[in-house]
């Protein structure tokens, strides 16, 4: 006979499973508990304080509940255990007030420490679209998408806006969350204390592909970051092979229609409705961290991106297989010299 699962048996089981699943993931590139900089570290500190205190409250309450259920009824008629109201005043009023004040003070400490510092190594503007991120370095003249490159060891200012609905930028290892609100500019910051690659995620439900609105953050040592800046300030070299040159014609041709939405630095393609493609081949992922950046996946994405990300705004491309191969060859030439 099938046993009926009771809710109070499922909830602790589900909670334990999620904790174990989080702990098991070994690369920790998207984990608020594996901070790689002062902002995330402060938030992790606050999280552990709250986790510790609230766990103690939960266990204490469960202990008293068990005690109340197991012990024989005691006290005078209509009274409470112990026969006076001292226990209720202490455990029911004073202790909760002390705990809430302690949590308030801890939160205030974090709020103060998370204030954006005046100075920053670089400012990055991020504009959220359904479902990808437009990324600009206004002081450096660099535009890219779905990837942030930052120098290590110094604050980075983030200025965020939205082109359509409310999104939220969150890189758990590095940042707090910040909403991207249409018509409003919000500011926050991050700092990476070591070089590495982390994954960020849109943290505000924004439609069908909210879960696939991610981005990668690459933190580089300052010299490497300066080299990245130099490489990205010069448009990619002209394509050399015949196939790539044909692919360029396909890109700028009317049949593929790429230039209606995309931009490539140093060319006449300057539309801003879809991700900038200037150094597409140097990126880690495609489709806002939906798939790896590999030529065959790129071809399948161009042919029909909806097989990976249903509902995104990129239409199916009406070109034949030869044109598609040439187009991918051209797009794969769009890389920074560091990737040669
Ligand atoms: Cu953008 Cu969720």
Q: Helical region count?
A: 7
**Beta strand %:** 15-25%
Please provide the ordered H/E string of secondary-structure elements.
HHHEEEEEEEEEEHHEEHH
Shape: elongated
Query: Compute the gyration radius: what is it?
Result: 26 Å
Compute the average pLDDT: 90
What does the main sheet amount to? 5 strands, mixed
- Would you count the extended β strands for me? 12
Return the structural class.
Answer: alpha+beta
Distance between the termini: 65 Å
Q: Give the neighbour order of strands across the main sheet.
A: 3-2-1-5-8
Ligand inventory reads: dinuclear copper ion
| Helical content band | 25-40%
* Low-pLDDT windows of residues: none
Explained architecture:
It is built from 7 helices and 12 strands. A hairpin with a 6-residue loop joins strand 6 and strand 7. The protein has helices at 7-24, 38-70, 86-113, 222-233, 242-252, 295-303, 321-331, and strands spanning 122-129, 132-137, 142-145, 147-151, 156-162, 167-170, 177-180, 186-190, 196-202, 214-220, 285-286, 291-292. Helix 2 (38-70) packs antiparallel against helix 3 (86-113). By secondary structure, it is of the alpha+beta class. The strands form 3 sheets. A 5-stranded mixed sheet has the order 3-2-1-5-8. A 5-stranded mixed sheet has the order 4-10-9-6-7. Strands 11-12 form a two-stranded antiparallel sheet. The chain binds dinuclear copper ion. Residues 128, 131, 167, 202, 204-206, 210, 213 line the site of dinuclear copper ion.
What are the salient characteristics of this protein?
340 residues; alpha+beta; five-stranded mixed beta sheet; 7 helices; 18% strand; elongated; binds dinuclear copper ion
